[in-house]
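User:
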Amino acid sequence: MWYNNACNVREDAAMNEAFIKKTVKLSLEFDEYLVKHPQLFSAIPNGAYIVITLSDDKKFSDESIGLIKDRRRKTVVEACNLVKHG
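Assistant: Predicted structure:
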């Protein structure tokens, strides 16, 4: 039984590391996009939280949404990236 739990912990850690790396990469891409399209800043309400989702990666999107799902936020903006990322 302990072996199964140890494997799950390692899988969770690997997923968390992969999720963090992907989130950082996509956040940087989103920032670059906003710099190139400054008119979009006005479309994001002041104080809003931005959640990045991917149309071709449900697991990543669910994890991203899950981070904000249980928290009380006034405004959440979804930034959906429609292209595949590695």
